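for the writeup, i need someone to sanity check this before i put it in the appendix. the sequnce is what the collaborator sent (i think, or maybe the updated version? ugh). structure was predicted straight from it, no edits. if anything looks off just tell me and ill rerun, i have time this weekend
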Amino acid sequence: MIFAHPACADAHQKRVRRNVRERFPIPSEGKPLYSWRGRMIVRSHVGGIMSADGSRNFPNAQIHIAQADLEFWTDDKRLGTPAEGSALAAKKNLLPNRDRIVFYKDGQEVIPGVQAMHTPGHTVGHTCFVINSGAKSLFVVGDLTHHVILVEKPRMEVAFDTDPKQGVETRIKVMDMLASQRMPALVYHLPWPGIGHFAKRGDGFHYVAAPMQLIL
């Protein structure tokens, strides 16, 4: 199992674990799925890896992350700044798991069929992923854009990006690539179903959601 974007507050962790168990069969030896050797691909959120009591929610998980993000968010220089909350979350969730962290690099195939693309701006190590299967590809946008207005007006700067100007440059570059290649994208910050295409429109872009397919 791949668990991307593992961000949840302590109060929501029980719900996450319950949902995982309900959606995947429990193996014959009786171990719940969250203790399997799964993989977490972390881009900018890490909440929920550790429980409030300090135990691991996913004891056997291997954690994939950009080295730049680990170093940035666990640096004591973040303390006393607006980034302190995120830094404390990173320290709590990542440092106890340092022995199971694997760094990925730009262009690397992180796991078979999943390629990393460094897209800095939201965070220093923010990474999008291209999932390839046969002749088909799907682009996982992550936190590149949080609202449709950033699609239509991609030069708007976002205060919660660690580098808003770089975020603008990256956002335009990626959406231009997706539009020119007509590659479908998974954009979970946009309205359901969160899968669609980007197209050029004036000085910005337009997001066209994939049609819903209702199977009875």
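The chain has five helices and eleven strands. Residues 28-39 have pLDDT under 50 and may be disordered.
thx in advance!!
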